[in-house]
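tl;dr need the bound structure. longer version: we got a ligand (magnesium ion) that a collaborator sent over and nobodys looked at where it sits. i said id run it. heres the input, straight from their email, havent touched it
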Amino acid sequence: MKFSELTISDAIFKATEKMGFDDMTPIQEKAIPLALSGVDLIGQAQTGTGKTAAFGVPLVEAADPMNKDVQGIIIAPTRELAIQVADELNALGRYKKVVTLPVYGGQDIQKQIRSLKKRPSIISATPGRLLDHIKRRTIRLDNIKQVVLDEADEMLNMGFIDDIRAVLEKTPSERQTLLFSATMPKPIRLLAEQFMKNPDRVKIQAKTLTVDMIDQSFVKVREREKFDVLTRFLDIHSPERAIVFGRTKRRVDELHEALQKRGYTAEGIHGDLTQAKRDQVLRRFKNDQVDLLVATDVAARGLDISNVTHVYNFDLPQDPESYVHRIGRTGRAGKTGLALTFITPSEMPHLKAIEAVTKQRMKEEKAPTYQEALVGQQKAAMQSITDTLASGNMDNYKKMAENLLDENESVDLIAAALKVLTKEPDTTPVKLTYESPLMAKRDKRRPPRGKGRGGYHHRQDGHNRNDRYKGNRNRKRVHHN
Ligand SMILES: Nc1ncnc2c1ncn2[C@@H]1O[C@H](COP(=O)(O)OP(=O)(O)OP(=O)(O)O)[C@@H](O)[C@H]1O
Ligand SMILES: [Mg+2]
């Protein structure tokens, strides 16, 4: 079904055309008409399949730019995502003149207050800053018609639930509530339904939770060998644009510095950096000034950066949902991608837990040798010669080439050129702080070690880490009040 077949205003249809959208994606086809009818819904579809427009079109359609109140609000877990969602809604609202304002932490609040005075119809916010504005009465939610939780399962997990509850309490009870995510574990869905009125569940039935355009594999590797293995894979894959996920902020700092030391153009992003730095890093990544983005899970959800060709999970993600979102930064909007996950021997049970949730097997890759990495780089050098040959723009070099050929064998000459061009694998020593293997995360609200009851003993015998892992997911994600 096409956007032209929807009952929406011409101004919005024109915007979708301008954005290059013609056919709707499956989630858009199902969710947009339902959302337009005013019902509450939970929309679940794989990463990179257009969930933003699935809620964006109904929001922009319902908004009246002549009305001075905030009418729609989207809450997202990270600042970058709040900005990106606002950009997409502004693109959709361009001809109807519906303005969406991003409101997030780390940005000058006075500047936000000035922008709010211009009366945006829709706000795309992170929860903390939104609550701040609600308290200051610089944002009023009395006349909100629609609330969207993007990355809904993340918004409703323990870290965010209280903020979300507080925001929802400020909105009229007759509001429409829309929840979207690629993952929706059952305990979270049940929790979500408390905030909704007989929600419709729109789930795009797929055999797997992950997009089949992503080639998924894992490599078994010892912690201290991870870095060399990563650089060898990078030398073989020569990714156009890749994201390397690390578990902690320190890890991300160390890793991107180590990559730079070995001659890669890498930058790091995590939540302890200033917003100005986060913006700069992301901009440099999008502008091709940086090939490798090293990130914590702050970059795992929702970010739509075109042509991310590879995702490397240098450290295992905390839970299978996080795996789904991380690798979903590649293979978007029908493109292909490659995801490679590093697993230390003691972490192997986590692999099974991830596969159980994604319903997808990962292929095992062997850690490449130095020699294989060298061959990778030689191939890259060869490729750059043939690419240059195809581009044809070499007139300035032809005379030199003829002179060289007068005095040398052609094969020797090309071999020398290849040798010069090949970036031989760099083995500059680097040191990363040891990161212990992923264990089931303990719930901070549980009694301390030794004082626990049944569950503790079960976990201590440790013969079934897989269960512990799953158990952990549920504990982390169920609201305990
Ligand atoms: N109907 C469409 N036709 C073509 N491209 C589309 C269409 N809808 C969305 N897109 C593009 O697909 C890409 C992914 O969309 P979007 O970011 O909304 O995915 P998502 O489902 O929200 O993914 P995630 O789960 O990672 O948040 C974007 O670049 C968007 O512009
Ligand atoms: Mg999204």
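gonna send this back to them w/ a short note. Residues 3-203 form a domain with the Rossmann fold fold (CATH 3.40.50.300).
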